[in-house]
Specification:
The complex is a heterodimer of chains A (273) and B (321). Chain A is an alpha/beta fold. Chain A has a single domain (5-271), classed as Thiamin diphosphate (ThDP)-binding fold, Pyr/PP domains (Rossmann fold, 3-Layer(aba) Sandwich), CATH 3.40.50. Chain A has helices at 5-26, 31-35, 38-48, 72-82, 124-137, 156-167, 188-191, 197-203, 216-227, 262-271, and strands at 63-66, 144-149, 173-179, 182-183, 186-187, 207-212, 234-239. In chain A, the strands form two sheets. A five-stranded parallel beta sheet of chain A has the order 1-2-3-7-6, sandwiched between helices. In chain A, strands 4-5 form a two-stranded antiparallel sheet. In chain A, helix 1 packs across helix 3 (38-48), helix 1 (5-26) packs antiparallel against helix 10 (262-271) and helix 3 packs parallel to helix 4 (72-82). With 321 residues, chain B is an alpha/beta fold. Chain B has two domains: 11-177, Rossmann fold (3-Layer(aba) Sandwich), CATH 3.40.50; 189-319, Rossmann fold (3-Layer(aba) Sandwich). Chain B has twelve helices and 14 strands. In chain B, the strands form three sheets. In chain B, strands 3-2-4-5-7-6-12 form a seven-stranded mixed beta sheet, with helices on both faces. Chain B has a five-stranded mixed beta sheet with strand order 9-11-10-13-14, sandwiched between helices. Chain B has a two-stranded antiparallel ribbon with strand order 1-8. In chain B, helix 8 (208-221) links the parallel strand 10 and strand 11. The longest helix of chain B is centred in the N-terminal third of the chain and has 18 residues, at 87-104. Classes of the chains: A alpha/beta (273), B alpha/beta (321). At the A-B interface, helix 5 and helix 6 of A face helix 4 and helix 5 of B.
Chain lengths: 273, 321
């Protein structure tokens, strides 16, 4: 059942608190790129994906692949919140710890409900295209959503996949670029510029939609537009803010891959209360 | 048990040809068999499959990393994907995707490399794969096979399709000498003792199986009884066959068209040291790249013919205790 914007906003706030708490407890992890993707994942898992968390292997389910696997905390939190049996909410704070199902990067051996094990950047879109081809061969309804990082798309394999997605006309595949402008070593424009991003995807033959990646209305409209687009895959270029929701993490390269210390943790939780 | 008279070793189909033909049979039997290729279908022989099943054949262009990833994605949807290219491109350029998508992700992906070894010939070292057995065997959970001839390729490709899990199969460009009759049974992980022998054992894979047979025949004229084992499955190794050979013949030669570093030989040696340590010799490529030439010329120059296998057997016998 579709959720109201207010409901989605409340969930997003809880997910942000989860992310900060998990990474604080783990003493390592990637807060920035988890926080930037919150609205997109909340919209997908709570409102858009055809999934049945109680029956995670339902064959006709939609698939979501977090190709930027380092944003695992946002995915874990959302999956726990939505109620998958293998992502227990009361264990989220075991993230990255020995024996936890919440591995540093998504790992299907520990969480079978995941659609792919990721973390080595650049690989998820190829997997998604293969999944899209498989669903199409069987004449089945699943749609495949692959979230990419903007730094991640510096990987050559992404563009191999982009070419093949358009060539093979996998219109059941949607790439979502979390365009937050920051990667580990700094600002994307200083490490390896990816702009003009939407032009690149268009040139590669993808139906391309630019949106504000924190605007639930815009995300939903883009997902619907993608679903109505036939004969070519869709790329959603989602303009986002790295570290969104925590003032001192926003647009701060330091928090790409660093856990908050105690003071920062308390401040962040206060801001998110 | 076979006798020498049984081996006519006539030129038969290339193992890549047998692979291509078998794919078509599999395609007819199972609609879930699909193929992903990277602009080499006329060489990998997946072109037969593409002609008969165009809807189940996906061209990825010259982009092996994506080819392997797309194959893994198809596997995740319940398909039985065969991705194929020259071994050197499929494995070396698709290695990380084999690792994440197939090994770590434990998907039902079948990677088939053609034009393996130096017997590709005229194209030269940039196209020659002499490392891929080492690479593929380093991927946890992968089955790795290197069949000797057309019949064994056909049987092992079929076995790979029937098996759930990631598989790499190594095939070659030139016509392969026929080792087996159509009635020979093959099982993943079960070596075949193609010749009995008690003085020395030659363990071989791929094209070297036929050379090992020729070597054993030559040794026999000198009164040396050589056992020949076709280790068509490099991983998982048939430990029983190896330890039995080590215990019974106490001298082992391993022969392969691959770098000695990381190849079948060192894997056999590990089992020998763990079970019945004995003298060993290794026939393979020793830390160098080959060159252009006819396959026969190259195999001769780089020490991969029967003469070299026989010489290694005599050498190991001299060290045998």
């Amino acid at each position: 059942m579709p959720k109201s914007i207010e409901e989605l906003q409340l969930i997003a706030q809880r997910v942000r608190r989860d992310i900060i708490e998990m990474i604080y407890e783990a003493k390592s992890g990637h807060p920035g790129g988890s926080l930037s993707a919150v609205e997109i994942l909340v919209q997908l898992y709570f409102d858009y994906l055809k999934i049945d968390p109680k029956n995670p292997k339902w064959p006709d389910r939609d698939r979501f692949i977090l190709s930027k696997g380092h944003a695992a905390p946002v995915l874990y939190s959302v999956m726990a919140e939505v109620g998958y049996p293998d992502t227990p909410k009361d264990q989220l704070n075991t993230l990255r710890k020995y024996g936890s199902v919440f591995q540093g990067h998504p790992d299907m051996r520990f969480i079978p409900s995941l659609e792919a094990s990721t973390g080595s950047l650049g690989e998820g879109l190829s997997l998604g295209i293969g999944m899209g081809l498989g669903a199409r061969l069987d004449g089945r309804p699943p749609r495949i959503y692959v979230m990419l990082g903007d730094g991640e798309i510096q990987e050559g394999q992404i563009w191999e996949a982009a070419m093949s997605g358009a060539f093979l006309k996998v219109d059941n595949v949607v790439a979502i670029v979390d365009y937050n402008g920051i990667q580990l070593d700094g600002f994307v424009k200083d490490i390896m510029e990816v702009a003009p991003l939407a032009d690149k995807w268009r040139a590669f033959g993808w139906h391309t939609i630019e949106i504000d990646g924190h605007d639930f209305h815009a995300i939903r409209a883009a997902l619907q537009e993608a679903e109505g687009t036939k004969g070519k895959p869709t790329c959603m270029v989602a303009h986002t803010v790295k570290g969104k929701g925590v003032s001192f993490m926003e647009n701060n390269p330091k928090f790409h891959g660093m856990a908050p210390n105690k003071d920062e943790y308390q401040l962040a939780m206060k801001e998110l209360s | 048990m076979p006798t020498n008279a049984k081996f006519e070793l006539k030129p038969g189909p290339a193992t890549r040809e047998a692979f291509g033909r078998t794919l078509v049979e599999l395609g007819r039997e199972n609609k879930d068999v699909v193929v992903v290729d990277a602009d080499l279908s006329k060489s990998t022989m997946t072109t037969y499959f593409a002609k008969e099943f165009p809807d189940r054949f996906f061209s990825c262009g010259i982009a092996e990393a994506n080819m392997v990833g797309v194959g893994a994605g198809l596997a995740m949807m319940g398909k039985i994907p065969f991705v194929a290219s020259f071994s050197v491109f499929a494995v070396n350029k698709g290695f990380e995707q084999m690792r994440i998508g197939a090994a770590y992700g434990r998907s039902n992906l079948k990677v088939v490399g053609t034009h393996s070894g130096i017997s590709i010939g005229e194209d030269g070292p940039s196209q020659m794969s002499v490392e891929e057995i080492a690479l593929a065997c380093s991927l946890a959970g992968f089955v790795v096979m290197a069949p000797a001839d057309g019949a064994s390729t056909k049987a092992l490709v079929r076995a790979a399709a029937a098996y759930y899990g990631p598989v790499f199969i190594r095939t070659g460009r030139p016509k392969a000498l026929t080792v087996y009759g159509a009635d020979q049974k093959f099982e993943i992980g079960k070596a075949i003792e193609v010749m009995e022998g008690k003085d020395v054992t030659i363990i071989a894979s791929g094209l070297l199986v036929a050379q090992a047979i020729l070597a054993a025949e030559a040794l026999e004229t000198d009164g040396i009884s050589a056992r020949v084992i076709d280790m068509h499955t490099v991983k998982p190794l048939d430990r029983d066959a190896i330890s039995r050979a080590a215990a019974e013949t106490r001298a082992i030669v391993v022969a392969e068209e691959h770098l000695v570093d990381g190849g079948l030989g060192v894997k056999v040696a590990q089992v020998v040291t763990e079970t019945h340590p004995c003298a060993m010799e290794f026939v393979g490529i020793h830390d160098r790249y080959a060159e252009s030439g006819q396959p026969e010329e190259l195999l001769e120059k780089y020490g991969l013919v029967a003469r070299d296998v026989a010489a290694a057997a005599r050498k190991v016998l001299a060290r045998k205790r």
